Amino acid sequence: MTITTKTGNSAEGGLILALSKGRIFEDTLPLLESAGITVLENPESSRKLILPTNDPGVRVLIVRASDVPTYVQHGAADFGVAGKDVLLEHGGEGLYQPIDLHIASCRMSVATNAGFDYESAVRQGARLRVATKFVNTAREHFARKGVHVDLIKLYGSMELAPLVGLSDAIVDVVSTGGTLRANNLVEVEKIMDISSRLVVNQAALKLKRERLQPILDAFERASQTQG
Ligand code: PRT
Ligand code: MG
Prior knowledge:
Helix 5 (135-145) links the parallel strand 7 (128-132) and strand 8. By secondary structure, this protein is of the alpha/beta class. The longest helix has 15 residues, at 209-223. The N and C termini lie far apart (45 Å). The chain has helices at 23-34, 68-73, 84-90, 118-123, 135-145, 160-163, 178-182, 202-207, 209-223, and strands at 15-19, 50-52, 58-62, 79-83, 95-100, 106-113, 128-132, 149-153, 169-174, 185-194, 196-201. It is elongated, with a radius of gyration of 20 Å. The strands form 2 sheets. Strands 2-3-1-4-11-5 form a 6-stranded mixed beta sheet. The structure holds phosphoribosyl ATP and magnesium ion.
């Protein structure tokens, strides 16, 4: 049995990039193109989890968005793209984060039912029940404000929690705000702006610098022209 080593599966010299399906994959494609790399299969239609590119030395792993930092940290991927929201929850251990790619942009916010008086709840120092996937970010935010919270960890569909009385508030990422509006929720406080970052395995950065650097440079140049 082979166990992944610190420098990863790609010890033969190839590069492995970890991406999640959906907006991060879509927004990373033009950056890859700017480095001369074309992904040869579409993850929405292919069942493959390791996708080839036009460069035999570069392959793309398709993983859950929140798993990207873990693959890169352990060297199973040399580099990856992950949202700041995901990186804050992961902690960033073992990861070098050289570039803000300005893609998959959104914001992390607090939202409540339309009728809930958030300002007075916070002022009165009552314990606030907050449901979220982003427990570290939420804990830090409310600690900074001096607000006592009971955090309820969820893995998705946070918007449902206030509707059914599971929580008073949620902490979630918001982009158009359409999902909040459709559920009669109101964004009551912005915590931070979010965008996706390039993350690189620290060992790969040293051992594969020659292969990685031109790609990092191309990503850096291309991302400066993004939103
Ligand atoms: O979906 P899955 O559970 O696999 O994981 P994920 O939600 O973490 O992955 P994915 O691919 O949906 O998101 C990847 C990254 O994109 C996140 O880590 C964020 O950094 C970023 N991003 C940008 C977003 C959004 N915009 C966004 N709108 N992530 C999630 N959303 C959600 C939002 O929470 C809401 O439920 O999309 C829904 C629609 O948003 P509105 O405001 O446009 O209605
Ligand atoms: Mg999602």
